[in-house]
């Protein structure tokens, strides 16, 4: 069994000796530059199958060995990736069917991640290169762990292999009973009924989301199985003090955004010892810290609070992401504030050819030090010090708020878009609602975890408040668990389009919300798109917003309004300000058992969502030391392995912020000014110095794009 933790904070970068200009041999120079910057780990090999195996059965690990030996000479650890996410030309020439067929047609060679992960030929040759590589490197003293594949997904494969396995899966699930399958999925509609297994159609043209959603769920299970298959092979050779990881990622909108559509992270994490993640985000004037926090909270949550490694984040990144002075250091500590035990950049040097030529690494194309490299060194040298890194490692969270998510709802709401009910691809989708909720909590300095729909009752009981943003598809077991959560004293907040269908996307045929009308004290059976539909708020909610300096008068409903009919005794927090819909509620709360349940029947704009959730958090009795600093600095907390509470005060702003300390303790990381060249100077005007003793209420200034970390 591999290790499930690391011995120090890992700081590093991906390194590709294979990609260097062939006229250069500077590997030892690179390692020395890394050592100077405090880099203690590199990640290699995950995208170099064609170099490792130039022809079938001919292996050449020259570049792997060069990297391992150079790292060993420099005292730098290595994570070795299995090179399976980019297939070599000879494999495609021999077995064209390794390329995935997608709804856009047959695959063509060139890009990465174009293969059918269940294809037998791909699996055969993939296993061979994994075995040869891992057996070759496992006993090297620099190797501390392995990354299986890279940002693995099902790549929208609808290849014959994938669809054949899907039919086999359905036959097992429904005990070979086609009548049961037809009834479950409602396939009588538009003559979609399947009366013989031999007649099973190509699912890519299906208009039935129950069948489409089941196919998506099946393909996600294949991702989990694929990663477990690779991890099992690696573990045949791995030593007991080495770990297996994978770099999960998120829905991509030019940066990491929301729940990953093609992977169930809660399922796939079982394959690895330590979860890894890739988090990319806007910087410069657009740096908010939200994507860093979202990615970290999700990754920590999938392994029930365990620490994780950021295996990829940007250094210089793409155009428009060159960090302002101070931002790279702030970003790195922001990852640690979420519970990361490692931060690694993609990548060390900027590539001189091909697709990612301008996704720049720590070094630019001249391969010389620059301000980004220098600032990375400021962070690297700081966390290498035991008095800093030793107190920030293995941060554990004790959050009282959780957001419940699932991939099935994401998939269903791509087909039944919130604003139209049809697959138009327009308007907000599932992740927009998830992020609207998450971002509001982030801005309130209310930290949260993520939980899956199959979380057991004992897990739900750890929280005082659970939010279900657009949780469209859920099994009845989830509804029963949420009912019990409220009855036992919890506060449940659910938004529009929650609890509409079962987990096979069949709409419930009783009063909405199914099984929970008495819990929420309401029902509804109509909804529509709003046009000029304002919101009017109850006095308590309006006062709560006003006390925070927020003006929510004139707020408008957006995307969809559910026409909520509250029962007697249900509190109406907001109603629709419109002559046709004035008799319906928009936001309600109802006591049930020892707890309460709140329903948000429309998509609120960010300011109003924050106001509603602020009042909900207050109602739930959720305490947070950072609440009174919301809007000034971001506050994130955890407990280190010494039992100290570690508080991060993060200023995502180009302006200095003056605050009173919310905690007492010792400054572990003080404010330092990063000058234009990327080096740091101690400067008490941007934060107290490390080692300073702080009491609650002490005044401090935190400089632009700066931070202070206090342990107490």
UniProtKB/TrEMBL annotation:
The keyword Disulfide bond does not apply. GO terms for biological process: carbohydrate metabolic process. GO terms for cellular component: beta-galactosidase complex. Its EC number is 3.2.1.23. It comes from the Bacteria. Residues 400-622 form the Beta-galactosidase trimerisation domain. Belongs to the glycosyl hydrolase 42 family. This is beta-galactosidase. It comes from Bifidobacterium margollesii.
């Amino acid at each position: 069994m591999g290790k499930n933790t690391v011995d120090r904070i890992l700081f590093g970068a991906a390194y590709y000796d294979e990609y260097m200009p062939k006229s250069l041999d500077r590997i030892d120079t690179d390692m020395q530059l890394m050592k100077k910057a405090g880099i203690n780990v590199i990640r290699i090999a995950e995208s170099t199958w064609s170099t490792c195996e130039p022809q079938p059965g001919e292996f050449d690990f020259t570049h792997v060995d060069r990297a391992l030996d150079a790292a060993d000479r420099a005292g730098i650890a290595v994570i070795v990736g299995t090179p399976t996410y980019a297939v070599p030309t000879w494999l495609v020439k021999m077995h064209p069917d390794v390329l995935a067929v997608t709804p856009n047609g047959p695959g063509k060679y060139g890009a990465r991640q174009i293969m059918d992960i269940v294809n037998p030929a791909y699996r055969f040759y993939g296993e061979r290169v994994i075995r040869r590589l891992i057996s070759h490197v496992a006993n090297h003293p620099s190797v501390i762990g392995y990354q299986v594949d890279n940002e693995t997904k099902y790549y929208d494969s609808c290849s014959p292999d994938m669809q054949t396995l899907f039919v086999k899966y359905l036959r097992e699930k429904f005990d070979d009973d086609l009548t049961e399958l037809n009834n479950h999925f409602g396939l009588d509609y538009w003559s979609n009924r399947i009366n013989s297994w031999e007649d099973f159609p190509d699912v890519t043209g299906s208009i039935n989301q129950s069948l489409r959603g089941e196919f998506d769920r099946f393909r996600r299970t294949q991702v989990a199985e694929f990663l477990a298959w690779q991890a099992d092979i690696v573990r045949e050779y791995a030593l007991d003090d080495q770990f297996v990881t994978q770099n999960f990622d998120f829905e991509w909108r030019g940066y990491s955004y929301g729940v990953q559509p093609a992977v169930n992270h809660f399922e796939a994490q079982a394959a690895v010892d330590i979860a890894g993640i890739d988090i990319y985000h806007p910087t410069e004037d657009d740096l908010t810290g939200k994507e860093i926090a979202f990615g970290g909270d999700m990754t920590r949550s999938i392994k029930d609070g365990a620490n994780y490694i950021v295996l990829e984040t940007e250094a210089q990144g793409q155009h428009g992401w060159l960090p302002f002075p101070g931002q790279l250091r702030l970003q790195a500590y922001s990852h640690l504030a979420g519970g990361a035990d490692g931060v690694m950049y993609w990548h060390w040097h900027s590539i001189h050819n091909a697709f990612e030529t301008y996704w720049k690494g720590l070094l630019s194309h001249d391969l010389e030090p620059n301000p980004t490299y220098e600032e990375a060194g400021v962070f690297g040298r700081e966390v290498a010090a035991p008095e800093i890194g030793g107190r920030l490692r293995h941060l554990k969270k004790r959050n009282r708020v959780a957001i419940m998510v699932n991939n099935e709802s994401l998939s269903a709401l791509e087909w039944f878009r919130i604003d139209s009910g049809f697959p138009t691809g327009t308007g907000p989708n599932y992740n927009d609602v998830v992020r609207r909720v998450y971002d509001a909590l982030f801005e309130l300095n209310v930290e949260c975890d993520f939980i899956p729909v199959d979380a057991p009752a004992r897990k739900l009981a750890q929280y005082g408040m659970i939010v279900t943003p657009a949780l469209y598809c859920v099994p009845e077991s989830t509804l029963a668990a949420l009912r019990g959560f409220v009855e036992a004293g919890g506060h449940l907040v659910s938004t529009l389009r929650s609890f509409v269908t079962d987990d096979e996307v069949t709409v419930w045929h009783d009063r909405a919300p199914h099984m929970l009308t008495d819990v929420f004290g309401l029902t509804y059976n109509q909804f529509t798109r709003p046009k000029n539909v304002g919101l009017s708020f109850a006095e308590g909610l309006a006062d709560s917003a006003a006390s925070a300096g927020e003006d929510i008068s004139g707020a408008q409903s957006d995307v969809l309004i559910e026409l909520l009919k509250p029962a007697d005794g249900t509190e109406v927090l907001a109603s629709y300000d419109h002559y046709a819909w004035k008799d319906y509620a928009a936001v309600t709360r109802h006591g049930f058992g020892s707890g309460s349940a709140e329903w948000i029947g429309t998509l609120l704009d960010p300011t109003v969502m924050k106001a509603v959730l602020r009042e909900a958090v207050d109602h739930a009795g959720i305490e947070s030391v950072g609440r009174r600093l919301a809007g000034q600095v971001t506050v994130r907390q955890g407990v280190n392995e010494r039992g100290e509470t570690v508080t991060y005060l993060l200023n995502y702003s180009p302006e200095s912020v003056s605050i009173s300390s919310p905690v007492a303790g010792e400054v572990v990381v003080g404010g330092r000014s990063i000058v234009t060249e990327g080096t740091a100077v101690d400067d008490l005007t941007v934060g107290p110095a490390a080692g300073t003793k702080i009491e609650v209420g002490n005044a401090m200034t935190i400089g632009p794009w700066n931070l202070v970390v206090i342990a107490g």
